[in-house]
Amino acid sequence: MAYARPFLNNRLATAKYLHATLSIPHALTMFVVTEAQAAAIRTAYEQHGEFSAAVELRQLFPGIADNVQARECARTIASWKPLSEPLRRMRLRPAESGCPTLPHCGG
Hints:
It is built from 4 helices and no strands.
């Protein structure tokens, strides 16, 4: 297996420089905002302004390190309207005798 070693060394030498050329322009993580968190951010926005809402957002989500991004997220969350009524749960069940409206189901 003398041929595997130069290949491995070449791959390691190439991999050493890959991290410098890799650029990811968007965020690698996402976060989920509960209705209670959205209400807290919305309240801070309405009572004290955009900067306070961004501070509240950064306290709730410490992974957001950029003030510009925090302000943008706070504006977006503050503009959300709470749902007027909770969504109903739907139960999906199979049809008893296939699907009678579609010809390929044999109905």
